[in-house]
Amino acid sequence: MVHNHPSGEAGPSDEDIEITRRVVEACSLMGIKVLDHIVIGKNKEDYVSFMDKGWIKGV
């Protein structure tokens, strides 16, 4: 999963965290593994990876 914030801020919102939790849970029920959710900010160096933060377990 990946999306950007129109504000340019890469920090995930509470809604981003909750929807990611719900999508990961729903995908798990179907045997699909979500590898990461990345929120992109204003610049290519400005991003947040849920996997890097430990919020999603990697492969």
Question: Structural class, please?
Answer: alpha+beta
Oligomer: single chain
Question: How many whole angstroms does the radius of gyration measure?
Answer: 12 Å
Calculate the terminal CA-CA distance, rounded to whole Å.
Answer: 15 Å
Number of helices: 1
Q: CATH fold name, please? A: Cytidine Deaminase, domain 2
CATH C-level class: Alpha Beta
Shape: elongated
What fraction strand? 15-25%
Any guess at the CATH architecture? 3-Layer(aba) Sandwich
Q: In summary, what is this structure?
A:
By secondary structure, the chain is α+β, with helices and mostly antiparallel strands.
Task: Jot down its keywords.
single chain, alpha+beta, 27% helix
What does this molecule look like?
The relative contact order is 0.27. The two termini are 15 Å apart. This protein has one helix at residues 14-29, and strands at residues 2-4, 38-40, 47-49. With 59 residues, it is an alpha+beta fold. α1 (14-29) links the parallel β1 (2-4) and β2. The model has no long low-confidence stretch (mean pLDDT 92).
What is the topological layout?
Layout: E1 2-4, H1 14-29, E2 38-40, E3 47-49
Parallel strand pairs: 1-2
Antiparallel strand pairs: 2-3
